[in-house]
Amino acid sequence: MSNLEKSDLPASRKAISRRLKRIEGQVRGVDRMLEQGRYRCLSA
Predict the structure, then answer these.
(1) How far is Cα 29 from Cα 7, in angstroms, rounded to an integer?
(2) Which pLDDT tens digit goes with each residue over 16-26?
């Protein structure tokens, strides 16, 4: 294992999971805006 202790892994995984869920929510929000025509982006 690298420099991380085994006891640090669950906390790190929780933090990563929270971050991924936040990103997922943001992506879903942008997708919803695109579907509803509220967001005009030339590259999308």
Answers:
(1) 35
(2) 999 999 999 99
